[in-house]
Write a structure and sequence with these properties.
The structure is a homodimer of 224-residue chains. With 224 residues, chain A is mostly helical. Chain A has two domains: 56 residues, Orthogonal Bundle (Arc Repressor Mutant, subunit A); 130 residues, Tetracycline Repressor, domain 2 (Orthogonal Bundle), CATH 1.10.357.10. Chain A is 69% helix and 0% strand. The first copy, chain A, is built from ten helices and no strands. The longest helix of chain A is centred in the first third of the chain and has 25 residues. Chain A is globular, with a radius of gyration of 20 Å. Chain A starts with 13 loop residues before the first helix and ends in a 16-residue tail after the last helix. The structure holds a DNA duplex (30 and 30 nucleotides).
DNA sequence: TGAAAACCTGACCATTTGGTCAATTTTTGA
DNA sequence: TCAAAAATTGACCAAATGGTCAGGTTTTCA
């Protein structure tokens, strides 16, 4: 954010706020489907229900729309690590984080895809954010996880790589939905699919962190 | 492949083979960096060291180049599930698969990125492949894993979701390298980084599948 | 109520870019 | 050696597209 969130100054009247929202919603969909270069201002305008010239009244350039979309997305990503604190129980904290991330994948897949696309192409717009805010946040949370490990509360897992793994495991369901659908034989992922996926990721990660509690119906020890 | 691999008929002379290779190498890089729409024939031509018109002699359209690149990539992806057979030891088979996938991420990141980009945008070109060959392959390998589970050789993990997780965990290091670099504080990922990443994924997955064997230097029981 | 500010938009333009083509050169193989 | 096949390429084109702008309408608020 910071530089990214540098919205045009001024009071931002009622109409502006409303239309900017519509434009960003439309843009998120279009950027997700086609990427930055593939997205056209005409298509965004059509989807937003505004003439193209009007887009350029609110956002000077396509890049500006793109940055605004990314900025909005980054806000979603931030507030999820709340519960990862030294005195929380690792199991509860990780469970909450995974469930929140999976919910985001299910509810805002386009947001995840725009973000993924930006990363895929080298993060030209959000590189500074990644190396700044995000890195700092992860470093802090990595410290928490290390304290859990030192206290014998979970298995020794590299905390930084753990976060990378958590993002990969959860966002894959939004980013690569086409592949997931093909494997599962679905047209699209429904709530039941996401429930099963969440359950899988949860079990898998908890086991991977040595936090597995066997459920009643499958009473087996962790190490077979 | 199949439909994708439908290369132009004919004997394919020496020069043709050589120049097609150069074009595909260049295209892989350019498509990875810019996506399908962002890639230009002019840039591919420049990188391949050929005049643009010459590209159109070998490949009629940009889409045809793109399909050829994807086809080449899919061949890399296929031959990796060799060792996943009913009589293999789960630990060895998964270890081999993960190490192979991580090696691919390290050695051919652009290939992974082109593939990821295609998935991200709904797999318009390889959807048939995903729903056909890939799905069949995964279904078969899922059967193997189920047999391992039934034999009590590993923890009960949804086999289809397990494959999705394995792909996500390994390919994230190529696809989202920008993010990984930012978190780890690197300019780019070196061999040491990949070694550490492979070790992490391996430990994480094996533990997640109930296949963890403590290494000498950290002798702790699986379930803390 | 009235004028300043905000908002709207059809028409237009310059650039980029995928693709074509015809003329030419190089390679092949009988 | 020589003709047929393969390969090469500069010049060119039509379409798509990001962006501009001048002149208009609507909203705001003192």
């Amino acid at each position: 954010m910071t530089a990214l969130a540098a919205r045009r100054p001024g009071p931002a009247g009622r109409i502006r706020q409303q239309h900017e929202g519509a434009i960003l919603d439309a843009a998120e969909t279009v950027f997700a489907r086609a990427g930055f270069q593939g997205a056209t201002m005409a298509e965004i305008a059509l989807k937003a229900g505004l003439p193209k010239a009007n887009l350029h009244y609110y956002f000077g350039t396509k890049a500006e729309v793109y940055r605004a979309v990314l900025s909005r997305i980054l806000q979603l990503w931030l507030a999820e690590t709340d519960r990862i604190t030294p005195d929380a129980a690792p199991r509860d904290a990780l469970t909450h984080y995974i469930e929140a991330k999976m919910h985001l994948s299910a509810s805002r897949p386009d947001a995840s895809r725009v973000f993924a696309n930006e990363l895929l192409h080298g993060a030209p717009e959000i590189g500074d954010y990644l190396r700044g805010e995000l890195r700092k946040l992860v470093a802090a949370k990595a410290g928490v996880i290390e304290s859990w490990i030192a206290a014998g509360q979970m298995a020794p897992v590299d905390p930084q790589h753990l976060f990378i793994s958590l993002w990969a495991l959860t966002q894959t369901y939004a980013d690569f939905e086409a592949q997931v659908c093909a494997i599962l034989g679905r047209q699209q992922l429904g709530p039941a699919d996401y429930r099963r996926a969440t359950e899988h990721v949860l079990n898998f990660v908890l086991r991977g962190c040595g936090l597995y509690n066997p459920t009643p119906e499958e009473m087996k020890p962790c190490s077979i």
